[in-house]
Amino acid sequence: MRLLVLAYDALEYTLVERLRLRDLLQKRYGRYEAARSPKYEKPHTPSAWTTIITGKPPEEHGIDDWWTYGKVLDWLRTKPPLVWIKNKRKILWKLGIKPRLYTREELRVKTIFDYAEKPIALFIPGYSEPVWPHEKLNEAIKKGVQEYIKAIWEVHRWRKEEFFKRLSEDWDLFMAWFDIADLLGHVCWHKCFAQIKMAYLDLARVAARAREALGNDVAIVILSDHGMGPSGDGVTGDHTPYGFWSINQDWDWFQPRKATDFFNLFLRILREK
């Protein structure tokens, strides 16, 4: 059976319920215990999604951050005397040494994509996410929150366009990542919550359009790596310790409890005749 995974970063379980977004809730839904980053001591996007696609915790799959300078320099930066030097990033950038996003090359284990015959992995953190959206957002935040929000929506529209462009291709596993709920959640939870509601409505429309195009013969799983709620400072949003899941099939056996469960569930769907 073909499987589509809509990876909606930071989609909050309680908010989807409160807004009664049936296109996100689908036939069955729930929440699960999110993967915890050893480095940040809470759910963190790259390590959490890598746990989902590998079925392994961060200690085993080896990815626990967005950026890397390579194994050697990453290790040296944590050792004396480099660990004592402030503003190491600026110094390295002036020397022409810039970090890159973690990709599949750094993975220590196989992913669910290795078990599919015709997989499409679109924008997956720690696996196939392109660099330019991050560079665009980093430049926008320097100009202020409003410019940042504008850039978030521009990147989101580009992700949607790419997703629907490839949806008609020949695949058995298609996973696409959308980060708008996470990005807006961090900056808008207290001061511009209407932006977050708009994002949830748009993500629901993406799901509805995909379901209409594919029909019921494709299993559609909507999944978040963690949720989003108010942070302790009362200004920003922060990650909650659980993620959201839903599926368009009425399967009682689909009961994920923790992030490592999804790997075998996805594998079972792919092998279902």
What labels would you give this structure?
single chain, 273 residues, alpha/beta, Alkaline Phosphatase, subunit A, globular
Model description:
The structure is a single chain. It is globular, with a radius of gyration of 19 Å. The longest helix is centred in the middle third of the chain and has 22 residues, at about 145-165. The chain has helices spanning about 15-20, 20-25, 45-55, 60, 70-75, 90-95, 130-140, 145-165, 180-190, 195-215, 260-270; strands spanning about 5-10, 30-35, 65-70, 100, 120, 175-180, 220-225, 225-230, 235-240, 240-245. About 40% of the residues lie in helices and about 15% in strands. It is built from 11 helices and 10 strands. The termini are close together. It has about 270 residues and is an alpha/beta fold. The strands form 3 sheets. The protein has a 6-stranded mixed beta sheet, sandwiched between helices. It has 2 domains: about 5-65 and about 105-270, Alkaline Phosphatase, subunit A (3-Layer(aba) Sandwich); about 65-100, no CATH class.
- Indicate the overall shape: globular
The name of the CATH architecture of the largest domain is 3-Layer(aba) Sandwich
Low-confidence segments, ≥5 residues, pLDDT <50? none
Q: Remind me, CATH topology of the largest domain?
A: Alkaline Phosphatase, subunit A
In whole angstroms, the N-to-C terminal distance is 6 Å
Largest beta sheet, briefly? Answer: 6 strands, mixed
